[in-house]
């Protein structure tokens, strides 16, 4: 199993607070969301207030409890140089304002100058689990996460191009179901947020929360930013359900 993982969103405002807090928090890896959120120095909750994040680009709606999120996207083609880099595309419940994310999606990583494609589910803070099915650029995915009650979630990912579908039901009773997201992400490791693979542009369509257009919940648009560098930018919502995320920088 790879050591990379997807995490809760880390807002620019939160990172600025940590940067100014001095040595007491300087040793905390900035991408390990539970450590930040449970910091005894600040008791911070990772919540997006200013539409920028070090690891997410896309849309998040808050104010649940939510019961479902779904969207479709086409697996982008990775443009790889010599550097190792990573990118993932997913739908999920929780993560903005909570320490868990129930999610499923696909990925393109660059290693040895070549793109590698995967699909997976994750019940963060547990590690991701890869599906064994082959993934190719141009594959059309539909992903959904649905709350069944009693702490149970079903994560379903369908590749309608290749004709396969995977569904996994797992339990996590502490989940708050406070938010839903449709996201392009720079995954993380124990050392922090990893370089973002050049995926060009990924187009998300049919984004629905609790069966309604995502725009119904006045979602926050999120751009991925590191310092003064924009790593990925998010377009406006079209028809309340569709948008694109474009890679800008690793």
UniProtKB/TrEMBL annotation:
Coiled-coil features, chain-numbered ranges: none
SUPFAM superfamilies found in the cross-reference section: Concanavalin A-like lectins/glucanases (SSF49899)
Annotated protein name in UniProt: Peptidase A4 family protein
The keyword Signal belongs to this UniProt entry's keyword annotation: yes
Keywords assigned by UniProt, alphabetized: Signal
CDD domains assigned: Peptidase_G1 (cd13426)
Pfam families: Peptidase_A4 (PF01828)
Signal sequence segment: 1-26
InterPro entries membership: ConA-like_dom_sf, Peptidase_G1, Peptidase_G1_sf
Organism: Streptacidiphilus fuscans
Active site: 181 (proton acceptor)
GO MF entry, a single one: glutamic-type endopeptidase activity
Domain of life: Bacteria
Gene Ontology biological-process entries: proteolysis
Ranges annotated as spanning the membrane: none
């Amino acid at each position: 199993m790879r050591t990379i993982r997807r995490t809760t969103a880390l807002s620019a405002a939160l990172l600025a607070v940590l940067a100014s807090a001095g040595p007491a928090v300087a040793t905390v890896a900035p991408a390990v969301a539970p450590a930040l959120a449970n910091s005894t120095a600040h008791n911070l909750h990772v919540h997006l207030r200013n539409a920028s994040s070090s690891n997410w680009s896309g849309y998040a709606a808050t104010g649940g409890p939510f019961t479902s999120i779904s969207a479709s996207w086409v697996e982008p083609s990775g443009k790889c140089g010599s550097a190792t880099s990573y990118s993932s595309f997913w739908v999920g419940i929780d993560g903005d304002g909570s320490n868990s994310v129930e999610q499923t999606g696909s990925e393109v990583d660059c290693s040895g100058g070549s793109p590698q494609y995967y699909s997976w589910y994750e019940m963060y803070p547990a590690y991701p689990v890869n599906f064994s099915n082959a993934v190719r650029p141009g594959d059309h995915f539909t992903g959904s996460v649905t709350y069944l009650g009693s702490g149970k979630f079903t994560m379903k990912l369908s590749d309608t191009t290749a004709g396969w579908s995977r569904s996994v039901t797992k339990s996590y009773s502490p989940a708050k179901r406070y938010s839903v997201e449709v996201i392009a992400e720079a995954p993380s490791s124990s050392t922090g947020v990893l370089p973002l693979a050049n995926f060009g542009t990924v187009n998300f369509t049919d984004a629905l929360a609790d069966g309604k257009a995502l725009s119904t919940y006045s979602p926050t648009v999120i751009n991925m930013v590191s310092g003064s560098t924009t790593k990925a930018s998010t377009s406006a919502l079209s028809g309340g359900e569709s948008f694109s995320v474009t890679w800008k920088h690793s």
